[in-house]
Design a protein that fits this description.
two-stranded antiparallel ribbon, 4 domains, about 550 residues
Length: about 550
Amino acid sequence: MPITPYTGPFGRPELQHLLRRSLFGCTTADRAHFEGMSLDQVVNELLTFTNDTTPPVRAYTDENGDPNGIDAAVPFGSTWVDTPITPLNDTDVIEVRIRSFAAWWMGLMRGQQRNLREKLTLFWHNHLPTQVSIVYQSEMQYRQNQLLRSGCKGNFKQLIHDVSVEPAMLFYLNGYLNVAAAPDENYARELFELFTLGQGSGYTEADVQAAARVLTGWTFMVENGGTPVLPQTLFFPPNHTASDKQFSAFFNNTVIQGQTGPDAGETELNALLDMILAVPECSRFICRELYRFFVHGEISAEAEAEVIGPLAQLFRENVDAPDQIAIVLRALLTSDHFFSNAIRGCMVKNPVDLVVGDLRLFDFPIPDPGLVEARYLVDLEHYWLTAYAGMNLMAPPNVAGWPAYYLYPSYDELWLDTATYPQRNNSLLAVVYGSVETPSNTVQPGSADLAFRVDIIAFVQQLSDPADPNALITDLVDLLYVNPISDAVKLQLKHFYLLFGQVSDIYWTEAYEAYIADPNTTNMTAQLVPDILRWLIGDMQKAAERHLY
């Protein structure tokens, strides 16, 4: 039975719900871009993208501001991704390149195109994670990130195949140590338990051992004859177990025929993945993962039957399709279930959605593209702001990713508690109140002594009628909260912040219009307008509702 498509109204509430789950936040510009389109048209555009990113560039210096004091092999303003670190263990260069990668990734999310690429890249990073503390190699981190964003909406078998032999994953889960003489079960176990089938799905310990033997012989190279090279995947036939591999009844008693020669690893890996994908539990597991990321952590019995089951069937029917994940996501995001009232506002935002969504919503200014040094500094500040809020992107807690996407029964509620709320709240306030400043001793003269801060007046001027305090409050509620708030709370916000304790709306209207007419006005009340707006929005940011989507 196919999943039930949504046939109800597709107005602003439905559009904002879809965009909040598909993008990092929903800005007034996002909303204006899609308004008037049908649901199918919006989802088609969200799923239409390529990996057209440009690589990170060297915009860093040593601790003294000297561009030649570190990573001198890479010219300032050029990319480092195609230059091996020499020597390999130069931790100073590794650190600055990792920070460059972090800033680059943050910049892509902050400046995301209006499609699902960045959200899906985060999804797969959580599902197929590596930790920078273990894979302490910037080129490997960059390569895997590019692999995820290139394959994020494509064919699942191809993606899991590519990740399995990617140097970052070979290193992270000991694949490079998995040899015929001493099989290492680490990756095989996680392949079954975390990446394709799920714990307790029915595979046996003997299946893990057999899969480990299938995967023997894969390794990677980061130096050649003592000279550092870019990470390269290799298959070394002498280290591969050439005997047959027997699997249990869970896998229909499949026997993967042992292979020899240079193609043995590729042949057996594909046979292993075909065997896994033939098990119905694989399709259900992946669809549950997508559901928990885009819809809700807890999956009810009804959702399992009416959503997961049909999506899994669609997944299996398109097992060879190059856009398999896009097909499944399109069905999910256009389903009746996705737009049900119970799903709207039911999830706690992860810290990336929270912080990047606010940076986008308030249009935090960023330096011109040519000012690579200033842009790097701003993006890196925002990367650490996201980490402060609770999600250091390069440091998922373990190979299972973040607990909010797998830990029953709390799931996304784990993001928000008495310990995390102050940090999350401070991060939101930092976006509205804070500024990022660049130092005087930059390499690029144009990157020196700059300050970037949200233009709160420019933000409210995007709203329907910011001079009308009632319209202003209504528009802010619509943008900041998924669910409406009471008229009494709206009235309280209006009187406390906009009317200065007065009764008539004219007090705000006159002050706002006076400031807009002349930002240098001598009207003392009008001079306070930008501060009043920050106070108002800052107070609205503190509400628990701000953390839901």
